[in-house]
Design a protein that fits this description.
It is a single chain. The protein has a seven-stranded parallel β-sheet, with helices on both faces. By secondary structure, it is an alpha/beta fold. The protein contains ten helices and seven strands. It has one domain: Rossmann fold (3-Layer(aba) Sandwich).
Length: 251
């Protein structure tokens, strides 16, 4: 029997944003979804929740190393062997401590690899197959932090800036095809990753609202989405502030 369900792959499926995106997709229709993470027990927990929400959906779980290029290639080829993928969401990442990254080069290196290089490797592995099939949407989560380097988080920002330039390059490469590349730039969002910011009194966006906006943008094949949308204007201002003003800001 032919499986006519939409095929969705989520890399970093245990992240709060990814998990909520998955819920929106299975609530909308029965899908064939593959969840990829670094801890099989955590991925299975997410999968079980989705199966309860959508018994008609097919939910697969896969464990992989996220910083090993060979492991990434093998995983992607394995997924693609199951048929054409309609949507890929690359959502993994960490929020490193900036001060630690300044003093510990190992922490600095890990932050750059996990938040910048790893998402790019997954994207490159999937895009090659999508280009051959001339179909599919690949969405990759960057951050508003990638729009301009700031003293408070420039290591994380540098990694996400790398993702931004990479996604733009993919969009240019695939402009004449039917493959869509969606660059997602969330602002600070209420997730376990930002718990320390919440404890410090920072105002964080609701994760469900952010995820709903992301899923809508992916389904529409938008090139860039800021989530929440207010960050479109905020970051336009930040990007264009003259240096002599920007340097006086404690951000």
């Amino acid at each position: 029997m032919t499986n006519n369900k939409k095929r969705i792959v989520i890399i970093g499926a245990t992240s709060a944003i990814a998990e909520h995106c998955a819920r929106f997709w299975v609530d909308d229709a029965a899908v064939d979804m593959t969840l990829v993470g670094r801890d099989i027990s955590k991925i299975e927990r997410v999968a079980q929740d989705l199966r309860v929400r959508s018994p008609q959906s097919v939910i697969h779980v896969l464990e992989s190393k996220f910083t090993d290029s060979i492991a990434i290639r093998q995983l992607v080829d394995r997924v693609i062997a199951g048929g054409i993928v309609n949507i890929v969401l690359i959502a993994h990442g960490t929020l490193p401590d900036q001060i630690e990254c300044q003093t510990d080069l190992s922490a600095n290196q890990e932050a750059l690899i996990v938040n910048g290089i790893s998402p790019m490797l997954f994207a490159e592995a999937f895009v090659g197959h999508m280009q051959k099939a001339n179909s599919g949407t690949l969405a990759i989560i960057g951050s508003v932090a990638g729009d301009r380097g700031r003293r408070s988080n420039y290591v994380y920002g540098a990694a996400k800036g790398l993702v931004t330039r990479y996604a733009q390059g993919l969009q240019h490469r695939l402009a004449s095809t039917d493959v869509k590349i969606v660059l997602i730039k969330p602002g600070p969002t209420d997730t376990p990753m930002t718990m320390h910011l919440k404890q410090q009194g920072s105002h964080l966006a609701n994760v469900e609202d952010v995820s709903r906006l992301i899923v809508k943008a992916i389904n529409q094949g938008k090139s860039v989405v800021y989530a929440p949308t207010k960050w479109t204007l905020i970051m336009m201002v930040v990007r264009h502030l003259p240096k002599f003003i920007f340097d006086k800001l404690d951000i």
